[in-house]
Amino acid sequence: MRLQQLASAIALLVFGPFSVAAQDEGARDSNWTFELGAGAGIGPDYEGSDDYEFTALPIIDVSWKDRIRLTTKGGPGLIGTPYRDDSFSVDIGLFYDGGRDQDDNDALRGLGDLDVGAVAMARLGYAFGPLEAGLEMTRDLTGDRDGMTATAELEYGVALFDDQLHLGVTPYITWANGDYMDNTFGISASQSASSLRGLTQYNAGSGLKDAGLSVNLGYQITDNISAFGGAEYSRLLGNAADSPLVADEGSANQFGAFLGLSYRW
């Protein structure tokens, strides 16, 4: 998982069903909510890398009736919620993914850039007690990756200390189609010939891509100001883990962490 994806996932969990940015009754009556903040995180410099990078990330979120959101959480994008009740929710969205630059790491030199661009997302969620089961599907609409993923997750969320501290723990597992796997983890004959590290040719087929666990905390400092953070571990699986980019040049074990502060009104 790239760093921005990690930080965005943590921010979505912290400010999702178990929002730490509590509002007074007057704010709840407003059709609009706004949130500004900043954070910093650390994560792999490409999916499967064992080299890590620090990045500063802005937090911008504009919401109308909690139904339409323009946000940087989940990557810059737009989310709509066409249906939601006490238990079931449906979200759809369109995000921007910057892809992968061959200059990010010497292991990528000669492979060329992996451009992505627009990514469509659809998510189904079902809450029961402190648990929410979710199924999120993504599909690349532009770029080189041309992939599709499906992620199943089960989030446990709890509020502590008079609702000031919120904890979320989420195990998940992700499946990816052949285009995603081969374009992300595969090495073509031409890429092998031009690789700086002399990577061997490799074809990656569809299958389980990774499984992981994220732990997220949010603390309400005032009615409007919140601090949040989280850590995540994931393990690449199957053809992803066997790729020369992972097995020879990187690691199947992926870690990340993120801290931030935001103001909401």
Write the layout of secondary structure elements.
Elements: H1 3-14, H2 25-29, E1 32-44, E2 52-64, E3 68-71, E4 77-84, E5 88-97, E6 117-128, E7 131-140, E8 148-160, E9 165-176, H3 178-185, H4 189-194, E10 207-220, E11 225-236, H5 238-242, H6 244-247, E12 253-264
Antiparallel strand pairs: 1-2, 1-12, 2-3, 3-4, 4-5, 5-6, 6-7, 7-8, 8-9, 9-10, 10-11, 11-12
List keywords for this structure.
about 260 residues, twelve-stranded antiparallel beta barrel, Porin, alpha+beta, 12 strands
Helix/strand structural class = alpha+beta
Helix percent band: 10-25%
- What CATH calls the topology is Porin
Count the E strands. 12
Q: Structurally, how many domains make up the residues?
A: 1
Output the CATH class name: Mainly Beta
CATH architectural category: Beta Barrel
Strand content: over 45%
Tell me the overall shape: globular
pLDDT < 50 runs, ≥5 residues:
11-27
Radius of gyration: 19 Å
Distance between the termini: 31 Å
Quick check: average pLDDT? 90
CATH H-level superfamily title: monomeric porin ompg
Q: Provide the succession of SSEs.
A: HHEEEEEEEEEHHEEHHE
Strand order of the largest sheet: 1-2-3-4-5-6-7-8-9-10-11-12
For the biggest sheet, the summary is: 12 strands, antiparallel, barrel
Number of helical stretches of at least 4 residues: 6
